[in-house]
From TrEMBL:
GO molecular function annotations of the record: molybdenum cofactor guanylyltransferase activity
Family that this chain belongs to: Belongs to the MobA family.
Protein name: Molybdenum cofactor guanylyltransferase
Organism (species): Castellaniella hirudinis
Record text about domains: The N-terminal domain determines nucleotide recognition and specific binding, while the C-terminal domain determines the specific binding to the target protein.
Gene encoding the protein: mobA
Record region (Disordered): 8-30
Function in brief: Transfers a GMP moiety from GTP to Mo-molybdopterin (Mo-MPT) cofactor (Moco or molybdenum cofactor) to form Mo-molybdopterin guanine dinucleotide (Mo-MGD) cofactor.
Protein backbone atom coordinates (compact mmCIF):
# COMPACT_ATOMS: atom_id res chain seq x y z
CA UNK A 1 0.00 0.00 0.00
CA UNK A 2 1.35 3.42 -0.93
CA UNK A 3 0.38 7.04 -1.38
CA UNK A 4 1.22 8.87 -4.61
CA UNK A 5 3.03 12.20 -4.80
CA UNK A 6 3.07 14.34 -7.94
CA UNK A 7 5.97 16.80 -7.94
CA UNK A 8 4.62 20.02 -9.46
CA UNK A 9 6.37 22.58 -7.26
CA UNK A 10 8.97 23.87 -9.72
CA UNK A 11 9.09 27.20 -11.50
CA UNK A 12 8.80 25.81 -15.08
CA UNK A 13 11.51 28.29 -16.18
CA UNK A 14 12.45 26.38 -19.34
CA UNK A 15 8.83 26.53 -20.54
CA UNK A 16 8.47 30.28 -20.18
CA UNK A 17 8.44 32.59 -23.17
CA UNK A 18 7.05 35.98 -24.15
CA UNK A 19 3.76 34.20 -24.88
CA UNK A 20 3.72 32.22 -21.60
CA UNK A 21 5.64 34.22 -18.95
CA UNK A 22 3.86 32.44 -16.08
CA UNK A 23 3.96 28.88 -17.40
CA UNK A 24 3.15 26.15 -14.89
CA UNK A 25 3.84 22.81 -16.61
CA UNK A 26 1.57 20.77 -14.39
CA UNK A 27 -1.44 22.80 -15.49
CA UNK A 28 -0.53 22.95 -19.18
CA UNK A 29 -2.72 20.77 -21.41
CA UNK A 30 -1.23 17.70 -23.06
CA UNK A 31 -3.60 15.63 -25.18
CA UNK A 32 -6.55 17.63 -23.90
CA UNK A 33 -5.86 17.57 -20.16
CA UNK A 34 -3.38 19.17 -17.76
CA UNK A 35 -0.28 17.09 -17.04
CA UNK A 36 -1.42 16.86 -13.39
CA UNK A 37 -4.57 15.01 -14.49
CA UNK A 38 -2.55 12.46 -16.49
CA UNK A 39 -0.09 11.88 -13.62
CA UNK A 40 -2.89 11.53 -11.08
CA UNK A 41 -4.79 9.03 -13.18
CA UNK A 42 -1.61 6.98 -13.67
CA UNK A 43 -0.77 6.93 -9.95
CA UNK A 44 -4.30 5.84 -9.09
CA UNK A 45 -4.15 3.08 -11.71
CA UNK A 46 -0.86 1.93 -10.15
CA UNK A 47 -2.67 1.59 -6.82
CA UNK A 48 -2.06 4.86 -4.97
CA UNK A 49 -4.15 4.96 -1.80
CA UNK A 50 -4.18 8.76 -1.60
CA UNK A 51 -2.87 11.37 -4.01
CA UNK A 52 -0.73 14.33 -2.93
CA UNK A 53 0.48 17.14 -5.17
CA UNK A 54 3.57 19.14 -4.27
CA UNK A 55 2.70 22.58 -5.66
CA UNK A 56 3.96 25.99 -4.62
CA UNK A 57 1.84 27.97 -7.09
CA UNK A 58 -1.82 27.74 -8.12
CA UNK A 59 -2.89 25.48 -5.24
CA UNK A 60 -6.59 25.96 -5.99
CA UNK A 61 -6.10 24.71 -9.55
CA UNK A 62 -4.05 21.70 -8.44
CA UNK A 63 -6.62 20.80 -5.77
CA UNK A 64 -8.81 19.38 -8.56
CA UNK A 65 -6.29 16.51 -8.88
CA UNK A 66 -5.31 15.71 -5.28
CA UNK A 67 -4.48 17.10 -1.86
CA UNK A 68 -2.04 19.99 -2.32
CA UNK A 69 1.05 20.27 -0.13
CA UNK A 70 3.48 23.17 -0.33
CA UNK A 71 7.13 23.13 0.60
CA UNK A 72 8.00 23.88 4.21
CA UNK A 73 9.07 27.58 4.26
CA UNK A 74 12.35 26.44 5.79
CA UNK A 75 13.15 24.58 2.54
CA UNK A 76 11.83 26.89 -0.18
CA UNK A 77 15.14 26.96 -2.09
CA UNK A 78 15.85 23.23 -1.84
CA UNK A 79 14.39 22.12 -5.16
CA UNK A 80 12.36 18.95 -5.64
CA UNK A 81 13.69 17.30 -2.49
CA UNK A 82 11.63 19.81 -0.50
CA UNK A 83 8.53 18.47 -2.24
CA UNK A 84 9.57 14.89 -1.52
CA UNK A 85 10.03 15.78 2.16
CA UNK A 86 6.61 17.46 2.29
CA UNK A 87 5.05 14.32 0.79
CA UNK A 88 6.87 11.99 3.19
CA UNK A 89 5.70 14.05 6.16
CA UNK A 90 2.07 13.83 5.06
CA UNK A 91 1.92 10.31 3.67
CA UNK A 92 -0.73 8.21 5.37
CA UNK A 93 0.74 4.90 4.26
CA UNK A 94 4.26 3.57 4.91
CA UNK A 95 5.28 3.98 1.25
CA UNK A 96 5.29 6.94 -1.13
CA UNK A 97 5.43 6.60 -4.92
CA UNK A 98 6.84 9.85 -6.36
CA UNK A 99 6.35 11.01 -9.93
CA UNK A 100 7.33 14.35 -11.53
CA UNK A 101 4.37 16.02 -13.19
CA UNK A 102 6.31 16.53 -16.44
CA UNK A 103 7.29 12.88 -16.97
CA UNK A 104 5.16 10.81 -19.36
CA UNK A 105 5.14 7.42 -21.07
CA UNK A 106 5.20 5.44 -17.85
CA UNK A 107 5.82 1.70 -17.89
CA UNK A 108 2.73 -0.28 -16.88
CA UNK A 109 4.68 -1.95 -14.07
CA UNK A 110 6.61 1.06 -12.74
CA UNK A 111 4.99 1.09 -9.30
CA UNK A 112 5.17 -2.67 -8.83
CA UNK A 113 8.82 -2.94 -9.86
CA UNK A 114 9.93 0.03 -7.77
CA UNK A 115 7.94 -1.35 -4.83
CA UNK A 116 9.60 -4.76 -5.16
CA UNK A 117 13.08 -3.19 -5.13
CA UNK A 118 12.58 -0.63 -2.34
CA UNK A 119 13.26 -1.34 1.32
CA UNK A 120 12.44 0.82 4.35
CA UNK A 121 16.02 2.07 4.45
CA UNK A 122 16.61 2.07 0.67
CA UNK A 123 14.54 3.86 -1.98
CA UNK A 124 14.24 2.55 -5.53
CA UNK A 125 14.23 4.77 -8.61
CA UNK A 126 13.78 4.20 -12.35
CA UNK A 127 16.52 4.09 -14.96
CA UNK A 128 16.12 3.81 -18.74
CA UNK A 129 18.74 3.56 -21.51
CA UNK A 130 18.67 7.38 -21.54
CA UNK A 131 19.81 7.58 -17.93
CA UNK A 132 18.46 7.72 -14.40
CA UNK A 133 15.07 9.15 -13.47
CA UNK A 134 15.84 9.81 -9.80
CA UNK A 135 12.48 11.42 -9.04
CA UNK A 136 10.47 8.45 -10.30
CA UNK A 137 10.88 6.63 -7.05
CA UNK A 138 9.36 4.58 -4.28
CA UNK A 139 10.45 5.33 -0.75
CA UNK A 140 9.45 4.64 2.84
CA UNK A 141 8.26 7.49 5.02
CA UNK A 142 10.87 6.55 7.65
CA UNK A 143 13.41 8.24 5.35
CA UNK A 144 11.94 11.68 6.11
CA UNK A 145 14.32 12.46 8.97
CA UNK A 146 17.38 11.50 6.93
CA UNK A 147 16.17 13.67 4.07
CA UNK A 148 15.58 16.57 6.45
CA UNK A 149 19.14 16.16 7.79
CA UNK A 150 20.50 16.09 4.23
CA UNK A 151 18.71 19.37 3.41
CA UNK A 152 19.74 20.96 6.71
CA UNK A 153 23.38 20.13 5.88
CA UNK A 154 23.04 22.00 2.56
CA UNK A 155 22.37 19.01 0.30
CA UNK A 156 20.26 19.76 -2.78
CA UNK A 157 21.12 17.13 -5.40
CA UNK A 158 18.56 14.37 -5.71
CA UNK A 159 21.11 11.81 -6.84
CA UNK A 160 23.44 12.81 -3.99
CA UNK A 161 20.70 12.08 -1.46
CA UNK A 162 19.81 8.81 -3.16
CA UNK A 163 23.46 7.71 -3.01
CA UNK A 164 23.60 8.65 0.67
CA UNK A 165 20.80 6.21 1.48
CA UNK A 166 21.91 3.41 -0.83
CA UNK A 167 19.07 3.77 -3.33
CA UNK A 168 18.82 1.11 -6.02
CA UNK A 169 18.15 1.73 -9.71
CA UNK A 170 15.49 -0.36 -11.42
CA UNK A 171 16.12 -0.71 -15.15
CA UNK A 172 13.39 -0.28 -17.76
CA UNK A 173 14.58 -1.19 -21.29
CA UNK A 174 12.30 1.09 -23.33
CA UNK A 175 14.35 4.11 -24.46
CA UNK A 176 11.12 6.10 -24.95
CA UNK A 177 9.81 5.45 -21.44
CA UNK A 178 9.68 8.22 -18.86
CA UNK A 179 9.92 11.09 -21.33
CA UNK A 180 10.44 14.46 -19.65
CA UNK A 181 8.60 17.50 -21.06
CA UNK A 182 10.89 20.32 -19.94
CA UNK A 183 11.01 22.62 -22.95
CA UNK A 184 8.75 23.72 -25.82
CA UNK A 185 10.88 21.46 -28.06
CA UNK A 186 10.06 18.45 -25.86
CA UNK A 187 6.34 19.25 -26.13
CA UNK A 188 6.66 19.46 -29.91
CA UNK A 189 8.43 16.09 -30.05
CA UNK A 190 5.81 14.28 -27.92
CA UNK A 191 2.45 15.81 -28.98
Amino acid sequence: MFDGLILAGGQSRRMRSADTPEADKGLMPWRGEPLAAHAGRYLRAQGANRLWISANRHPDDYAAYGAVVGDDPEYTDCGPLAGVLAGLQRAQTPWLFVLPVDVLRWPDNLGARLGDAARPDRPAYARTPGGPHPLCLMLHRSLAEGLRAFLDAGGRQVQGWLRSCGAVAVDFPDADALVNLNTPEDWARWP
